[in-house]
């Protein structure tokens, strides 16, 4: 059986409602497809505040519980600083500079 990868390019601001929708859709798709990898390309997200960063981390943890690995691609310097300020260990999250790099890492 071939591993399935889901790719979600995110474009535009992420408010709490959109973030909740993203979480529901991503987890639903993981459950329906049995995907082992979820690539979240956040290159198109202009800013990531602490609330959004926390929501993305909850998605990463939920996906792990479902047997899927999440890779965050396109993390901007400001987002990286917020994730570190939240106490995130960089080794706990798979990251890639671009979506293309994330696909190669798989």
Labels describing this entry:
106 residues, alpha/beta, Transcription Regulator spoIIAA, 4 helices
Structure description:
The structure is a single chain. With 106 residues, the protein is an alpha/beta fold. It has one domain: Transcription Regulator spoIIAA (2-Layer Sandwich), CATH 3.30.750.24. The protein has four helices and four strands, in the order E-H-E-H-E-H-E-H. It has helices spanning 16-33, 50-65, 77-85, 99-105; strands at residues 5-11, 37-44, 69-73, 94-96. It has a four-stranded parallel beta sheet with strand order 1-2-3-4. Helix 1 runs parallel beside helix 2 (50-65). The protein is globular, with a radius of gyration of 13 Å. The model has no long low-confidence stretch (mean pLDDT 90).
What is this structure's SSE topology?
Blueprint: E1 5-11, H1 16-33, E2 37-44, H2 50-65, E3 69-73, H3 77-85, E4 94-96, H4 99-105
Low-confidence stretches: none
CATH fold field value: Transcription Regulator spoIIAA
CATH superfamily caption:
STAS domain
What is the rounded Rg? 13 Å
* CATH class label: Alpha Beta
The proportion of residues in beta strands is: 15-25%
Shape: globular
Structural class: alpha/beta
Biggest sheet features: 4 strands, parallel
C-alpha termini separation:
16 Å
Strand arrangement in the largest pleated sheet? 1-2-3-4
Looking at the overall shape, the CATH architecture is 2-Layer Sandwich
Q: What is the share of helical residues?
A: 40-55%
Strand and helix order: EHEHEHEH
- Which whole number gives the mean pLDDT? 90
Count of all domains: 1
Strand tally is 4
């Amino acid at each position: 059986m071939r591993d399935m990868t889901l790719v979600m390019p995110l474009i535009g601001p992420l408010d709490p409602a959109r973030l909740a929708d993203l979480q529901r859709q991503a987890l639903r798709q993981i459950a329906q497809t049995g995907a082992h990898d979820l690539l979240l390309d956040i290159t198109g997200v202009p800013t990531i505040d602490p609330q959004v960063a926390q929501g993305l981390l909850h998605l990463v943890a939920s996906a792990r519980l479902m047997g899927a690995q999440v890779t965050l691609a396109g993390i901007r310097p400001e987002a990286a600083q917020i994730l570190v300020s939240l106490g995130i260990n960089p080794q706990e999250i798979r990251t890639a500079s671009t979506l293309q790099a994330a696909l190669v890492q798989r």
